[in-house]
Design goal:
Length: about 220
């Protein structure tokens, strides 16, 4: 059994489902609390710290759940499942879901532990400084009367860069998880992900070339 993982499951249907009992049986480190609607969900998630959000793909509130994930800091991984699979109370399916949840939570923890975040932009008069995670301010430059506006623009762009980095890392984690759940031999997954990443780099080079050509025009 790994470390304890607290899960909030949004099960907004009339038919009772043994999500809590089955998941806690499959992984003794899980502690699951169920919410029957978004009101109960928000009340629960504000009352304690959760490591993972679980929701059905068919839920009318799934958009609200994803929005909550994007705006919450630190991000909480979301695991979506097709409702029909749980309706059969198939313990084997719950076991696969438990593995999926634990892998996703651990991947997010690793990402957060290695993240340095976006630097803060500090404007003092006409001078612009960048403040890193060590709390030290590094002089960036001076833009005169435009320093305040430029500082705001820089900070937004730094946050956007950090957002893209985190979302791409999460996407790679999701793809890796899907490969582990497929029929591909687990020992080949990392090589496959790396080869896919190499081909993605070519796409980024083409995108950069296209944007540079557009700016030249």
């Amino acid at each position: 059994m790994g470390r304890q993982i607290d899960i909030i499951a949004l099960i907004d249907i009339d038919t009772p489902m043994p999500v809590k009992q089955c998941l806690e049986r499959c992984d003794q480190g899980f502690r699951v609390e169920q919410a029957s609607n978004m009101v109960a969900f928000r009340r629960l998630i504000l009352s304690k710290k959760f490591d993972c959000i679980l929701s059905s793909m068919e839920s009318p509130c799934v958009g609200d759940v994803i929005c909550f994930q994007l705006t919450h800091h630190p991000p909480i991984p979301v695991v979506l499942f097709p409702l029909g699979d749980l309706a059969h109370n198939n313990l084997e399916y719950y076991e696969r879901m438990a593995v999926r949840i634990r892998r996703k939570v651990e991947s997010m923890k690793t990402l957060q532990n290695t993240s340095h975040g976006a630097p803060a932009v500090i404007v003092r008069g006409d001078e612009i400084y960048l403040r890193g995670v060590d709390g030290k301010d590094v002089y960036w430059g001076s833009e005169g009367p435009d320093s305040i506006d430029l500082g705001k623009e820089m900070e937004l762009e730094f946050r956007a860069i950090d957002y893209v980095r985190i979302r791409l890392a999460a996407a790679v984690s999701d793809v890796t998880e899907e490969l582990y759940l497929s029929d591909i031999a687990p020992e080949h997954v990392s090589d496959i992900v790396y080869e896919g990443y190499r081909k993605l780099l070519l796409w980024f080079r083409d995108l950069d070339a296209a944007l540079s050509h557009r700016e030249g025009n």
